[in-house]
Amino acid sequence: MRLKRVISIGMSGDDITLLQEKLKELGFFNERIDGYFGQNTLVAVTSLQRSLGFKPDGVVGTQTWSQIINYGIPRKKSLVQTPSPIIDTREMPFNSSYVGSDGLIIYDCLLSDDEYVKIETQKTTIWLHHSGGSSRPDWTINGWENNNGLKVGTHFVIGRKSSSSDVEIWDGKVLKAIDDRYWTNHLGIENNDKLNSRSIGIELCNYGPLTLGKDGNFYNSINKQVNREDVAELETEFKGYKYWEKYTDSQIESLSKLITYLQKRWLIQIESGIYNEDWFNYDEKWFSMGGLRSHGQVRVDKLDLFPQKELIDMLNRL
Fold first, then answer.
1. 0.85 exceeded by pTM
2. Are 203 and 158 in contact, with CB atoms under 8 Å apart?
């Protein structure tokens, strides 16, 4: 069943009944199923959200709903045990909406309609970002849901393998948060609406700059140790940082396919052979519309993207 509205406390209906049934199957709800979102249902939803690593706001948007309906998580074994998010490595918990002949697969993890501007516009520019956070693209998208009407996000998010564990299912997976016919805010600059409305945003899951600890290990922004094979060391510092979490080979490959797909779909003119370390730097010339851009080119305070050699090589092959 597709979510037709954002569900929260005080609501009633068939979707609430289904929600309660699923929560009961998963071991989070033990009360009578009555189709009313009361306090007991709220407790069950927030408990589930915590187990998934989502913000426990008690509001059921598309990400929470998708996990419950399409994927689910194991039943709790005891009242004192907190269930961990278990990923079925055999399949994705989201349905694919596009499969290309080159192997590009796009999975739907769509935001609610009120989280973006549902007006169709012609697109001229592709903007590249990285998230500054977790390897899971669905968690990135979930952070944009119920965002107090700010309408912030990107159209696509590309996951990566975890750099602090052995979870690899999300590496290179492309999730669509917003239909690219529409638009949302992702730049935060002068002439914001004009540029945003004519652009498509792509986000790579990546923590960004890393810190070299006194123990010789590398740490990300939430102080998690990063595997050494996931560390990119730049010859010259970029925006004050020398060490970064790598964009993975799978991410770069998926990004290449996605850019090519969007370029053909929207007839976007992308310059070739111009990509080097300097291309990533801030410059007012990048405020013009058209082509391929990165967020750091138009925001001095933004670090996305950084000039990783493998990424530069891919861009020059477009």
1. no
2. yes
